[in-house]
Specification:
33% helix; alpha/beta; Nucleotidyltransferase, domain 5; 5-stranded mixed β-sheet; homodimer; 2 domains; 293 residues; 9 helices
Amino acid sequence: MRIGGIEAGGTKIICGIGNEKGQIEKKISFPTESPEIVFEKINQFFAGEQLDALGVGTFGPIDVNRKSATYGYITSTPKPGWKNIDVLGELKKQFNMPIGFDTDVNGAALAEATWGSAQGLNSCVYYTVGTGVGVGVFVEGSLVHGLLHPEAGHIPVKRHPADSFEGFCPYHKDCLEGVAAGPAIEKRFGVKGHELGKEHEAWQLEAYYLGQALVSTILLLSPERIILGGGVMHQEQLFPLIREQVRSTLNGYVQHQMILEQIDQYIIPPALGDDAGLCGALALGLQEYKAGR
Amino acid sequence: MRIGGIEAGGTKIICGIGNEKGQIEKKISFPTESPEIVFEKINQFFAGEQLDALGVGTFGPIDVNRKSATYGYITSTPKPGWKNIDVLGELKKQFNMPIGFDTDVNGAALAEATWGSAQGLNSCVYYTVGTGVGVGVFVEGSLVHGLLHPEAGHIPVKRHPADSFEGFCPYHKDCLEGVAAGPAIEKRFGVKGHELGKEHEAWQLEAYYLGQALVSTILLLSPERIILGGGVMHQEQLFPLIREQVRSTLNGYVQHQMILEQIDQYIIPPALGDDAGLCGALALGLQEYKAGR
């Protein structure tokens, strides 16, 4: 099979072609300019390619309700020019094939369950921690949509007693994203995270907030794997700190060996690394193809 | 159809017989004594009845993993005599029919999605707030299990600045259950909740904590309905307070009319009322029957 993938982020778009094993044959990236320019570049990249399916994993919020009149739209984004844009409709004009459409993070969760760290499992949650915090949720073999789609970057968190930073989320100030995304580290300490030493107190704070969010995730959803990706998670010293935070907060309540004994195999980095997003788009295309839509 | 249902709570067991419409024909209840006595009474109640299926919604933690050697067991409960009890195995000795088995709260969520407040929807979350806080989760048409099953009564919550009560959860002190279950109200104010006036500050505190948990639930799972049952939720003045807490905390972030305009139809009491638990057991039996197991 040959599957086209489009990973649409707020700052750049990655287009690629891969197969049903998640292997990428070629890819390009370009900035997220106006929709006109972006769709033109997408059409150019895929022009003349023989494809079986296409998948799109995009920034949001988006409409993923197949019964909705605006299914396939990017909806209420603050990004200039991208509000109420019919992404799926534009692609359907050019590409006569199954086209999968979901959030970038739902795509990444599906890719990890299809080819990566959660392969063969019935559930996983994918967190990306970078300029924002995004969450993809795969439960009982399905990506979660519901009313809209998960937006767990914005869940409330208890404040660390030693943290006086007010938080930077324009909606909630000190929600998870407001205190734990990359900009929170930079605003709190005056330099970017990767300029801080591995022993800096920033990482303990970061683990406090992310660990707390994972505890809520475990208690609400009981996922079989939790995968943490994104730029901030390149700080590998965070993983043991987060696992310890989760264990100490749960305090033995969830009696399962993955948490009690094997937490280093439970809270893990993405197996697909920096290709998780593009693989997510491929996985969405593959899923749509298999569903016969 | 005739379906048997067993709602097994920590203090009492309810057995009943109903049909595929969730209509209850007859029921009895008795205290949760030793497993020997309980199984004997269950056998007596159903003896000679013509049934198509049986469903069990039980207190936990339980093993709901069909591939596990202890599938159908109540596992690590502190309740004397009930640790590592093979509930499903005991029932299978007596009843040769499909037997559904899940948590009482997952059963209640399924019943509300089958016959109640979430009828026809693809997702709902059921909270029961009483001597503890239990949560059942139905997502994309399936009850959520994953690693174990949801235990969202214990998620971390931000403390209300005016609340000095330390919390009573033996594992986490001031998790949701520790500050918002019935005993927290009693320990904080010295009398049971139903003895406090409807204007008492207790209800504002209660709404602060429950509203916060619902915000996390909405952001992580995006359920199409949230149903709040249990003894504490008989205090109907809580519903508008909780809805307001959810709306003000989300602060317009989730752009969906169910939250922005129709939140009084979104966060609601169980349609099945005090029969939600028994109907849950019937729904679990019906689900097992339909799955042809």
